Amino acid sequence: MTTPLLSVRDLRVSFAAPQSKKWPWSPAKRVNAVNGVSFDLPAGKTLGVVGESGCGKSTLVRAIAGLYPPTSGDVTFDGKPVDYTNRRETNALRSRMQMIFQDPIASLNPRMNIREIVTEPLRVFRPDMTAQAQKEAVRAMLDRVGIAERNFNRYPHEFSGGQCQRIGIARALVTEPDILLCDEPVSALDVSIQAQVINILKELQKDMGLTLVFVAHDLGVVRHISDEILVMYMGGVMEHAPAADLVAAPQHPYTKALFSAVPVPDPKVTTTPEVLDGDLPSPLDLPEGCLFQSRCPRRMSRCATTRPALRHVGQSKVACLLYEPEPAAI
Ligand SMILES: Nc1ncnc2c1ncn2[C@@H]1O[C@H](COP(=O)(O)OP(=O)(O)OP(=O)(O)O)[C@@H](O)[C@H]1O
Ligand code: SF4
Ligand SMILES: [Mg+2]
After folding, report:
1. CA–CA separation, 61 vs 59, rounded Å?
2. Hey, which of 19, 202, 255, 304 would disulfide with 250, CB 3.0 to 4.6 Å?
3. What angle do CA 123, 175, 210 make, to 5 degrees?
4. What pLDDT, on the 0 to 100 scale, is given for residue 94?
């Protein structure tokens, strides 16, 4: 078996919660944003990450990129454990692991023109390159994402959202990283522009041998680009499966509910979205058992006390007690 490019083991990230104004003497609490995520990602593949708003998708990718310190857990990149407390190591990692964000215009410096924006990472990470070589690399990268040279002296506000995201991709890829972490890169764009940006990413992935982590709300988008999909809920992984298997036969009750809400492009197939009743638990105070128990239509009594582990079910991995035999009574 080949060594994965990226391995994440039991990663946890929590933030200090603001102190209650009403009960200022109450003990400080923490927002548990990522609660024990593990996965392996082989080089050249795409991992889609889906889940409702607030389930920890952005926190997960930001922690992997070294933008948020993990509270515990391990990340191994290219066979080497990453020490996020070591600044030099984290800086070196950033040249090989780049990110693109949801808001393409806000993520570009408004005071720099496009040439400066795309040259900046080369100045930081590739000081060995001559100014001429940097200029050539920037021109080639911008050309690759469809930005003509006559526009290089223009500023971000002069471009559309789709063009800004293409410039963001050029900036992220100009240093030729191994992995691109994409945090909802197309969510803010019109549907027709979404397809353009996804196609550019796919082409660049093929040409550069890139590995992608692609976060999205929209299962319809993520299933087209991903080899495997990770379904998150309240910071935990509910299901991790090859994209085709997840689409054809979702296993976890939460994944089934998510998929029942995705329209099928076939008039003969009519699906009724499964409505999840029940409240979301608070990330300040997670339940002892299954994270999904308060909304699960299949919950059982033991779901309140036992946190299911991620287990193989066919080609998929599922965290649900329906797939775990009940322990024999003594
Ligand atoms: N810097 C922060 N400080 C405190 N809490 C945070 C911080 N960032 C995120 N959180 C909390 O962590 C949890 C996960 O947030 P995160 O932004 O990772 O979710 P998400 O899945 O990316 O959501 P969305 O789909 O809306 O982007 C949420 O409860 C959020 O309020
Ligand atoms: S463990 Fe129980 S509550 Fe959780 S998803 Fe499975 S059946 Fe539902
Ligand atoms: Mg997010």
Report:
1. 6
2. 255
3. 165
4. 86
Q: How far apart are CA 61 and CA 209, in angstroms?
A: 20
CA angle 62, 63, 66 (to 5 degrees): 90
Q: How many angstroms from the chain centroid is the CA of residue 31?
A: 19
Please name which of 199, 176, 177, 170 lies closest in space to residue 186, comparing C-alpha atoms: 199
Residue with tokens 């060995």: 128
Q: What is the mean pLDDT of each run of 10 residues along the chain (330 residues)?
A: 90 88 76 97 97 95 94 96 91 90 91 97 94 97 96 96 95 97 92 91 96 90 92 97 94 91 59 74 93 96 96 96 81
Atom 5, ligand 1: residue with shortest CA distance:
15
pLDDT at 1: 60
216 within 8 A of 186, measured Cβ to Cβ: yes
User: Would you say the pTM of this structure is higher than 0.90?
Assistant: yes
* Lookup result for tokens 């990453």: 82
Domain boundaries along the sequence of the chain: 6-15+24-249
CA 48 to ligand 3 center in whole angstroms: 13
The amino acid occupying position 175 is T
- Which phi and psi angles does 183 have, rounded to 5°? -100, 95
Identify the nearest ligand to the CA of 54 by its number. 1
Measured in angstroms, how far is the CA atom of residue 59 from the centroid of ligand 1? 6
Q: Which CATH architecture has domain 6-15+24-249?
A: 3-Layer(aba) Sandwich (3.40)
pLDDT for position 260: 79
94 lines ligand 1 (CB under 6 A): no
Nearest atom in ligand 1 to the alpha carbon of residue 217 is 25
Q: Nearest C-alpha to atom 7 of ligand 2 is from which residue?
A: 299
**Which pLDDT value is given to residue 264?**
56
User: Integer distance in angstroms from the first to the last C-alpha of the chain?
Assistant: 41
How many Å lie between the centroid of ligand 1 and the Cα of residue 159? 29
Alpha carbon nearest to ligand 2 atom 8, residue: 299
- At residue 205, what is the residue type? Q
Helices 114-125/131-144 angle, 10° precision: 120
- What gap in Å lies between CA 14 and CA 31, rounded to an integer? 5
